[in-house]
């Protein structure tokens, strides 16, 4: 009698070499070392690819909150916050909340908090951006915790121009595509859009 989860696993994914599936590797080497190695390799490869594209294009495709996103996408890929839907909507929400907060506090053309220090307007923008991001993600049923860092990155003036939004989202899309491919190759039924 076959195991239903093994049947489901064998029918899902792109992996031509079943002995590289995470479940098989975990049986042989243990869960923790395999997950640690999977996260190490995929986190490094993901960020290296996006950073290389940023270097080639000279666009800000890479930003700090992608590191936390990469960790979630490879450590708990089937969790709702790791789904492509939540990842994309979350970062978009964070960026928009950040830009709106900059506009509300008159900081669209101001130097970043790193260059100029923090003042009352910057405190207000940072607080509003994070609060708005969290509230909107809940209302949109799309929690993705690293998006809070995206809201702060924008509201602290590290990516202060609305024209950077498509570039920021392109970095997120690249990471999600890479996560989809690598998770599926590992035999993990990473969703196309939304977690089940």
UniProtKB/TrEMBL annotation:
<feature type="transmembrane region" description="Helical">
    <location>
        <begin position="60"/>
        <end position="76"/>
    </location>
</feature>
<protein>
    <submittedName>
        <fullName>HPP family protein</fullName>
    </submittedName>
</protein>
<dbReference type="Pfam" id="PF04982">
    <property type="entry name" value="TM_HPP"/>
</dbReference>
<feature type="transmembrane region" description="Helical">
    <location>
        <begin position="88"/>
        <end position="108"/>
    </location>
</feature>
<keyword id="KW-0812">Transmembrane</keyword>
<keyword id="KW-0472">Membrane</keyword>
<dbReference type="InterPro" id="IPR007065">
    <property type="entry name" value="HPP"/>
</dbReference>
<feature type="transmembrane region" description="Helical">
    <location>
        <begin position="165"/>
        <end position="186"/>
    </location>
</feature>
<dbReference type="InterPro" id="IPR058581">
    <property type="entry name" value="TM_HPP"/>
</dbReference>
<feature type="transmembrane region" description="Helical">
    <location>
        <begin position="34"/>
        <end position="54"/>
    </location>
</feature>
<keyword id="KW-1133">Transmembrane helix</keyword>
<feature type="domain" description="HPP transmembrane region">
    <location>
        <begin position="36"/>
        <end position="191"/>
    </location>
</feature>
